[in-house]
Protein backbone atom coordinates (compact mmCIF):
# COMPACT_ATOMS: atom_id res chain seq x y z
CA UNK A 1 0.00 0.00 0.00
CA UNK A 2 2.85 2.39 0.84
CA UNK A 3 4.42 1.69 -2.57
CA UNK A 4 1.19 2.52 -4.38
CA UNK A 5 0.76 5.72 -2.36
CA UNK A 6 4.41 6.70 -3.05
CA UNK A 7 3.94 5.96 -6.76
CA UNK A 8 0.75 8.05 -6.84
CA UNK A 9 2.47 11.00 -5.11
CA UNK A 10 5.43 10.82 -7.53
CA UNK A 11 3.11 10.61 -10.51
CA UNK A 12 1.09 13.63 -9.40
CA UNK A 13 4.24 15.63 -8.70
CA UNK A 14 5.85 14.82 -12.06
CA UNK A 15 2.67 15.42 -14.04
CA UNK A 16 2.21 18.84 -12.41
CA UNK A 17 5.72 19.99 -13.41
CA UNK A 18 6.09 21.87 -16.66
CA UNK A 19 9.04 20.99 -18.83
CA UNK A 20 11.05 24.03 -19.83
CA UNK A 21 11.86 24.58 -23.45
CA UNK A 22 15.31 26.01 -22.69
CA UNK A 23 16.58 22.93 -20.90
CA UNK A 24 20.40 23.20 -21.15
CA UNK A 25 20.57 19.43 -21.54
CA UNK A 26 18.32 19.49 -24.60
CA UNK A 27 20.55 18.09 -27.34
CA UNK A 28 18.27 19.40 -30.07
CA UNK A 29 18.98 22.90 -28.84
CA UNK A 30 22.69 22.95 -27.91
CA UNK A 31 23.04 26.73 -27.68
CA UNK A 32 20.07 26.96 -25.31
CA UNK A 33 18.17 28.97 -27.92
CA UNK A 34 14.42 29.10 -27.75
CA UNK A 35 12.24 30.19 -30.59
CA UNK A 36 8.48 30.25 -30.83
CA UNK A 37 8.63 29.96 -34.60
CA UNK A 38 6.30 27.08 -35.47
CA UNK A 39 7.93 26.66 -38.90
CA UNK A 40 11.29 25.51 -37.53
CA UNK A 41 14.23 26.90 -35.62
CA UNK A 42 16.73 29.40 -36.95
CA UNK A 43 20.45 28.94 -36.41
CA UNK A 44 22.45 32.12 -36.91
CA UNK A 45 26.21 32.37 -37.44
CA UNK A 46 28.82 34.86 -38.63
CA UNK A 47 29.94 34.27 -42.23
CA UNK A 48 32.19 37.15 -43.33
CA UNK A 49 32.94 40.84 -43.16
CA UNK A 50 33.63 43.39 -45.86
CA UNK A 51 35.51 46.65 -45.31
CA UNK A 52 32.91 49.13 -46.58
CA UNK A 53 34.98 52.21 -45.74
CA UNK A 54 38.52 53.02 -44.69
CA UNK A 55 40.49 56.27 -44.84
CA UNK A 56 42.52 55.53 -47.96
CA UNK A 57 39.85 53.37 -49.72
CA UNK A 58 42.12 50.36 -50.26
CA UNK A 59 39.87 47.91 -48.34
CA UNK A 60 42.66 47.01 -45.88
CA UNK A 61 42.53 47.59 -42.11
CA UNK A 62 45.63 49.68 -41.35
CA UNK A 63 47.07 51.73 -38.49
CA UNK A 64 45.42 55.08 -37.85
CA UNK A 65 42.35 54.44 -39.97
CA UNK A 66 38.68 54.79 -39.17
CA UNK A 67 37.07 51.55 -40.40
CA UNK A 68 33.47 50.66 -41.24
CA UNK A 69 32.59 46.99 -41.66
CA UNK A 70 29.61 45.17 -43.10
CA UNK A 71 29.31 42.05 -40.94
CA UNK A 72 27.32 39.18 -42.45
CA UNK A 73 25.21 36.58 -40.64
CA UNK A 74 23.65 33.50 -42.21
CA UNK A 75 20.60 31.58 -41.04
CA UNK A 76 21.61 27.92 -41.28
CA UNK A 77 18.43 26.75 -39.56
CA UNK A 78 14.96 25.82 -40.77
CA UNK A 79 12.91 28.74 -39.39
CA UNK A 80 12.84 32.48 -39.98
CA UNK A 81 14.83 34.51 -37.45
CA UNK A 82 12.71 37.57 -36.64
CA UNK A 83 14.07 41.02 -35.76
CA UNK A 84 17.71 39.98 -35.53
CA UNK A 85 20.24 42.25 -33.80
CA UNK A 86 23.96 41.84 -33.13
CA UNK A 87 26.08 43.47 -30.45
CA UNK A 88 29.81 43.58 -31.11
CA UNK A 89 32.67 43.85 -28.65
CA UNK A 90 36.43 43.78 -28.80
CA UNK A 91 38.32 41.57 -26.39
CA UNK A 92 40.51 44.04 -24.46
CA UNK A 93 42.38 45.85 -27.20
CA UNK A 94 43.82 49.16 -26.14
CA UNK A 95 44.67 50.00 -29.75
CA UNK A 96 41.10 49.77 -31.08
CA UNK A 97 38.61 52.54 -30.35
CA UNK A 98 35.18 50.99 -30.91
CA UNK A 99 32.28 53.29 -31.73
CA UNK A 100 29.75 50.89 -30.15
CA UNK A 101 26.19 50.34 -31.27
CA UNK A 102 23.90 47.49 -32.19
CA UNK A 103 23.49 46.36 -35.78
CA UNK A 104 19.97 45.61 -36.96
CA UNK A 105 19.57 42.70 -39.41
CA UNK A 106 15.78 42.49 -39.66
CA UNK A 107 14.26 39.10 -40.46
CA UNK A 108 16.60 36.44 -41.86
CA UNK A 109 15.06 33.50 -43.73
CA UNK A 110 16.64 30.04 -43.78
CA UNK A 111 19.72 29.77 -46.07
CA UNK A 112 19.86 33.56 -46.34
CA UNK A 113 22.89 35.73 -45.59
CA UNK A 114 22.49 39.37 -44.57
CA UNK A 115 24.54 42.23 -43.16
CA UNK A 116 23.28 44.52 -40.43
CA UNK A 117 23.10 48.29 -40.27
CA UNK A 118 23.48 50.61 -37.29
CA UNK A 119 20.49 52.73 -38.30
CA UNK A 120 18.46 53.70 -41.35
CA UNK A 121 21.12 56.15 -42.56
CA UNK A 122 24.32 54.11 -42.17
CA UNK A 123 25.08 51.27 -44.57
CA UNK A 124 27.50 49.37 -42.31
CA UNK A 125 27.34 47.11 -39.25
CA UNK A 126 30.10 48.47 -37.03
CA UNK A 127 32.87 51.07 -36.98
CA UNK A 128 36.07 51.64 -35.07
CA UNK A 129 39.36 53.51 -35.22
CA UNK A 130 42.72 51.75 -35.20
CA UNK A 131 45.49 53.41 -33.20
CA UNK A 132 48.73 54.44 -34.91
CA UNK A 133 50.54 52.65 -32.04
CA UNK A 134 49.19 49.15 -32.75
CA UNK A 135 51.95 46.71 -33.76
CA UNK A 136 51.73 45.67 -37.43
CA UNK A 137 50.34 42.16 -37.86
CA UNK A 138 48.20 42.32 -34.71
CA UNK A 139 45.22 39.95 -34.86
CA UNK A 140 42.10 41.45 -33.31
CA UNK A 141 39.09 39.42 -32.22
CA UNK A 142 35.52 40.70 -32.37
CA UNK A 143 32.88 38.88 -30.30
CA UNK A 144 29.24 38.87 -31.35
CA UNK A 145 26.04 38.36 -29.40
CA UNK A 146 23.22 37.76 -31.88
CA UNK A 147 19.60 37.90 -30.67
CA UNK A 148 16.13 37.63 -32.16
CA UNK A 149 12.66 38.78 -31.16
CA UNK A 150 11.89 35.44 -29.45
CA UNK A 151 14.76 35.86 -26.98
CA UNK A 152 17.03 33.30 -28.62
CA UNK A 153 20.72 34.13 -28.71
CA UNK A 154 23.81 32.93 -30.48
CA UNK A 155 27.44 33.83 -29.89
CA UNK A 156 30.12 33.94 -32.52
CA UNK A 157 33.33 35.79 -33.28
CA UNK A 158 35.69 36.75 -36.07
CA UNK A 159 39.20 38.11 -36.38
CA UNK A 160 41.05 40.55 -38.58
CA UNK A 161 44.70 41.50 -38.93
CA UNK A 162 45.91 45.10 -38.78
CA UNK A 163 48.62 45.85 -41.34
Describe the SSE topology:
Elements: H1 2-16, E1 44-53, E2 66-75, E3 81-90, E4 96-98, E5 102-108, E6 113-115, E7 126-130, E8 138-147, E9 153-162
Antiparallel strand pairs: 1-2, 2-6, 2-7, 3-5, 3-8, 4-7, 8-9
Keywords:
single chain, 163 residues, mainly beta, Immunoglobulin-like, 5-stranded antiparallel β-sheet, 4-stranded antiparallel β-sheet, 1 helix, elongated, disordered N terminus
State the total count of DSSP E strands: 9
Total domain count: 1
Shape: elongated
The secondary-structure element order is HEEEEEEEEE
Query: What is the CATH domain class?
Result: Mainly Beta
Low-pLDDT segments: 1-36
Q: Could you tell me the strand content as a percent range?
A: 35-45%
At CATH level 3, the topology is: Immunoglobulin-like
- CATH architecture label name: Sandwich
Amino acid sequence: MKKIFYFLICFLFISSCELERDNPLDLKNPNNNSNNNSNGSPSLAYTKFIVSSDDNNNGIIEKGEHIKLKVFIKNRGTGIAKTVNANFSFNSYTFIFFDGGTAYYGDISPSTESYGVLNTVDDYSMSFTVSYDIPSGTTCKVSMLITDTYGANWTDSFTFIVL
